[in-house]
Amino acid sequence: MQEVKAMSVAVKEMMKQANKVVQLSERQPDLAALLSSLVDHTVDQLEADIDSEKARLELTHGGSSNTIKEFEEREKQIQKLRGKLSEFEAQLAEFDHAINEIRGKWEPKLDEIIKSISDAFSDSFARIGCAGQVTLDKAEDEAGADGEPGGSDFDQWSIQIHVKFREHENLSLLDSHRQSGGERAVSTIFYLMALQSLSASPFRVVDEINQGMDPRNERMVHGRLVDIACAPSENGGGGQYFLITPKLLSGLVYKPGMRVLCIYSGEHMPKDYEQLDFGQAVQRMRAIRDRGRALEDPTQRSNGHVDVHA
């Protein structure tokens, strides 16, 4: 009788536990799914699974006793880094705003200067039957994945010079591959002249500007230089130019106000060089030319009077 009574008590306890499990399974769908998967398990299999899970938990606990502490420390570090990231993002936004504000003031002025240089450069090329322009290449970063505009690499901004020397060609970037040496020299000189048009100066020195040029390019550059040097001040002139060169072509263009200075020096100069009268020598050469007994003197082919001094 006692055994039956004990079994009855045990069954009631099991029923009570089963009801609790049923109630839990109703509130937790995952637990209901787990119970349905264990219907066919025997008691031995269930005990084996329980022992396996206990062993795994013991191994986990024993292998890293400071796991929770490490997790909490890392969580604190993450929160701290997130705070710093927020500060950096706020500073970055302030810097971007400041950059855009400053850029809004100086970029239009820079564009205006580049346009003035390009206009002067294009005018010089148009006068010799060619074409040219100066542009500002503004290096911009690629847009972000969310469509935000990229930033500007101001240190990568550059001046680009485009020229065209032949009618059938298009404007091309000035470099060492597309143009000849003479064409690059002409482009460089005209660009320097365009830069000079933006600044006032009492005088400028041009040293051997015609060296390495073919006669056609030399005549074009010399003619343009004369136009600029002899132009009125309101047209970009007014400054004095010193052109230093060891040689000049015949038949170049000269205008009133120009003066040719010939410098005597070298090992072939006579000892009594102070007795030389260069002006008289020039007059004799002109007389010889007029009689047709010598080559033309380049200083006489002029559309204006030129003073010659030694």
Fold and architecture overview:
- α1 crosses α2.
- Helix content is 52%, strand content 10%.
- The chain is rod-shaped.
- Strands 1-2-3 form a 3-stranded antiparallel sheet. Strands 4-5 form a two-stranded parallel ribbon.
- The longest helix has 61 residues.
Brief summary of the model shown:
This protein is mostly helical. The chain has a domain at 252-310. The chain has 7 helices and 7 strands.
Q: How much helix is in the residues?
A: 40-55%
Order of helices and strands: HHHHEEEHEHEEHE
Q: Helices and strands: which structural class?
A: mainly alpha
Task: Classify the oligomer.
Answer: single chain
Major β-sheet, in short? 3 strands, antiparallel
What average pLDDT do the residues reach? 77
| Total beta strand runs | 7
Strand content: 5-15%
Number of helices, counting only DSSP H or I runs of 4 residues or more: 7
Low-confidence stretches: none
Overall spatial form: rod-shaped
Numbering strands along the chain, what is their spatial order in the largest sheet?
1-2-3
Organism: Aspergillus minisclerotigenes
GO biological process, one term: double-strand break repair via homologous recombination
Coiled coil: 71-105
Protein name: Structural maintenance of chromosomes protein 5
